[in-house]
Amino acid sequence: MAIEGRYTVGPETVRMLALGHPWVIADAFTRRWPKGKAGDLVELCDEKGRFLATALLDPAERIAARVLSHKRLRLDKEWLGKRIRSAVQLRSDHAGLVDSTAYRLVNGEGDGLPGLTVDRYGDYLMVQVYCSGWRPHLRLITQALQEILAPAGIYEKDRPQKTRELEAASDSKVYGRLLWGVKAPQPLQVQENGLNYLVNLELGLNTGLFLDQRQNRRYLMGRVKGKRVLNLFAYTAAFSVAAAAGGADIVTSVDASASYLEWGKTNFGANRLNPKRHEFIVGDCFHVLQELQRQGKSYDIIIMDPPSFSTTAKSRFTTRGGTSDLVAAALPLLVTGGLLITCSNHQKVDVADYLKELRRGALQARCELRVAGLFGQSADFPYPVTFAEGRYLKYVIAVRGEE
């Protein structure tokens, strides 16, 4: 695709582009842009007409354009192929993908393709577009992926705009569609860190395995031998499988969704781990924590990896404000010297604010918490140093001290 036109941006956007940020946020200047359509390739220029960048237009959205390059370019298979090959090479060189067939191949802004991700699940690829600007180029993307990676099939999974309004039943709704190739088995077995997990490329908002936690699960496996582990918001129990495989004495998995926990039991079975030797509890995590405390239970490690917002109508959890309450409810169950592992994938909550949430929870529970590790997403989720939003995952390992 050739350049469709020149679009003027204001001083604030000029400053942000000079700092390397890849987004053009809608403002008074973008509202005066010539009429264009999502997917148009445009040149961005300042008020004096000086060229700044080539961008992909998405005029109806808050992010009105996404920068592809600070040079002029033609969006074709050659240019796209070069970006994809570069992304593949980065994973090969730096991502530590030993014994893993499920990982991210293209991470949007981190690979110079803002708003576009490509994940590998065994012999299949999953494309997701986070802006309408890529949708007209799906065929081009598919062709490039075919030629470079020769997958068995390529899927796209929709990203609904109003996920906050979706119920838990959405896990049975079809969001994935086959773009090219042969259909994948449903479920499809993939490998991560030498462990087997079942994913579904068609049903649900997500596939059943959050790939950005791969390195964190590997790290967990080396710390759990002989421990009692409580996994809150367990989803399909990926952290629980890693803990059990790492030698934990007993793993208790808690989630509001019975179907996700059944999926989790299947993941245990896929690794020859007997789910009957562990515990699976369906319920709201706050209510379950109260009941476990009443029973006098205690744990050496407590993991909490909640969604940034709940997709279950009855859940009380939201990231803002909910984290401190959750920490306060969990700490009485954690032994002195035990590990509290907390996560947030909420992009708008930075590390400093997240640690304040942990502080509030610790003060509320009258416990000391010491941070022993602070990590982010796996290395196959790179981000530019000029794009702070790309460092979205907060993974904190804290040690409980005396009250």
Uncertain stretches: 310-317
User: What number is the mean pLDDT?
Assistant: 92
CATH architecture of the largest domain: 3-Layer(aba) Sandwich
Which CATH class of the largest domain?
Answer: Alpha Beta
Largest sheet strand order: 15-14-13-16-17-19-18
The CATH superfamily of the largest domain turns out to be Vaccinia Virus protein VP39
Order of helices and strands: EHEEEEHEEEHEEEEHEHEHEHEHEHEE
Report the portion of residues in β strands: 25-35%
CATH fold group of the largest domain: Rossmann fold
Can you give a write-up of this model?
There is one protein chain. This protein is α/β, with parallel strands linked by helices and 403 residues long. The protein has helices at 11-18, 77-94, 138-149, 214-221, 238-245, 258-270, 285-294, 319-330, 351-365, and strands spanning 5-8, 23-25, 41-45, 51-57, 63-69, 102-107, 116-121, 124-129, 153-157, 176-181, 188-192, 195-199, 228-232, 250-255, 279-282, 299-304, 334-344, 369-375, 394-400. It has three domains: 5-69, Roll (Archaeosine Trna-guanine Transglycosylase, Chain: A, domain 4), CATH 2.30.130.10; 77-188, RNA methyltransferase domain (HRMD) like (Transcription Regulator spoIIAA, 2-Layer Sandwich), CATH 3.30.750; 210-400, 3-Layer(aba) Sandwich (Rossmann fold), CATH 3.40.50.150. The chain is built from nine helices and 19 strands. The strands form four sheets. The chain has a seven-stranded mixed β-sheet with strand order 15-14-13-16-17-19-18, with helices on both faces. It has a five-stranded mixed β-sheet with strand order 1-3-4-5-2, with helices on one face. Helix 4 runs parallel beside helix 5.
